[in-house]
Predict the structure.
Amino acid sequence: MMRQAEEVLRRVWGYDVFRGRQAEVVATIASGQDALVLMPTGGGKSLCYQVPALMRPGTAIVISPLISLMQDQVATLLQLGVRAAYLSSSLDAHEARAIESQLLDGRLDLLYMAPERLVTARTLDLLQRVPISLFAIDEAHCVSQWGHDFRADYLGLAVLAEQFPQVPRLALTATADLRTRADIIRLLRLESAPVFLSSFDRPNLFYRILPRLNAMEQLTDFIRREHPGDAGVVYCLSRAKVEKVAAALQAQGFPALPYHAGLPAQVREANQTRFLREEGIIVVATIAFGMGIDKPNVRFVAHLDLPKSLEAYYQETGRAGRDGLPSTVCLFYGLQDVIKHQQMLMQSEGSEEHKRHERRRIDAMLQLCETTDCRRQLLLRYFDEHLPQPCGYCDTCSEPVATWDATEPSRLALSAVYRTGQRYGVEYVVEVLTGKRSERVAANQHDQLPLFGQGQSLALKSWRSVFRQLLAKGLLQVDGDGFGTLRLDPSCRSLLKGEVSLTLRQDRDTLTAQRQARGRSKAAVAVDSADQPLWLALRACRRALAEAQGVPPYVIFHDSTLLAMVEHMPLSLQEMRQIGGIGDSKLSRYGEAFLAVIREHVDALA
Ligand code: ADP
Ligand code: ZN
């Protein structure tokens, strides 16, 4: 059976070997058993059901929540010569009929549909009349109460176990936590299904987190140095900021487009389509953007505001580098983020227990930002995975962070908060510490305090860094009054009394840090300058073919396939067939066109 599976993989996809646990999953489903698959984004979930769909008799039914995802998958499969279609509300009655009759005639290998459509009596009845090879339930975490928008629709899928007991069911998700997993098993009746859990590490993502000084300058510097011409996503918290950042990027010549829920639907859709169809577009977005995007060659994801939890951070950053090629995720964060999150927490209406839960989530996020150890180790530990060694592929690994003994300045900072009556925000307390006799300081006679001006040896930037870290460590708290008023947390007592010392992260001049990091992070997809002309010519060929068919370029070939062409320069169809990602169908469709590009290039060299 595995021989057959590998034959399908090679013939249709042009891939040599299964990745990770794909082979086990394929074997399980192909032999008619159920399975639950937990794999990170980009891990290769689709093949887990697409390969068995081609091995078993009948049509595979794939349940997916979003039309854009279905369209993308179907376009990709059609390019591979696989008979695939989707049923969705975007089709008119006539089109839907046509697809139903293809199904009834046994002319479909895979049929995609949304859960709400599947559970209608009409669809269930239709499915009873044809042989079904398997049910694949994508984004299965939607069934969980900790999940998401589509829960009600997903709950209806329990009916599959009753009505189609002999058909194997495969649930897939990139959400791995235990509660979600338990919900999926219970609600989709997968109690006896083997669980295939993969590592959630994303080894091709370089993690970088930088203190924010001048966000726009840092962002443009980052893009210019590490990802010129690449496609990326920039996340901001508010709609207004999205607009501002997109406009600022445009003004500097970047092809940037805004995306948030406040834009008219046509604009949103047009911007999303350009992001998918064109190369090198940067989308500036709120978190409304992302679900339903499986563009494989997003080369960077930048956050200009702190995400609210590590779960959110992991999901948003996970949209980079699905194709496995090197990509960078970069978070800029600062004192204001810490203050804002603490305020939101104080103002939240929930129960005490809910607040504690939220605080833990934010604390974990802050810990990731402030750590001087390997980011990846910390991140994976949060998801209950143990990475024995530092990864060597994050900013703290490749440029170890300096620390300094901040016991005295911290004590001074805490005293200043206390002596000024725990009634002011960071700016004011720093004025007192650095001896700035502003109007308000004078009016309050805080220039009379013994500690007035005692902190002049530290620069303003350093004081802000100290306060940020004291807040992040929970030694200081922010009131929910909207003014950022600081107060002492009881946990700071031992530091104030001189019983413990405190070591803090030495914030670097961030632009220098980025510059130094450039060579080491290997974050960009590397094409030697000598190979640039061929690489650009291959991309132009791909773009022309994609435009002619109205599909995204990556549906023709992935970047990794073009890179392999650059490396091996195949000069015949047989040689071309050896390249990863070129199966029979794509070879006959596009082989000659790309060979012509390579031959021309080789002739020019001769
Ligand atoms: P997921 O749905 O888990 O995010 P996908 O199924 O979209 O991931 O796969 C991610 C990428 O990896 C796709 O571009 C896919 O073609 C590629 N891929 C998957 N399996 C293999 C494999 N065995 N060999 C080579 N490439 C693979
Ligand atoms: Zn690391």
Summary: The two ends are 48 Å apart (CA to CA). The chain has 29 helices and 17 strands.
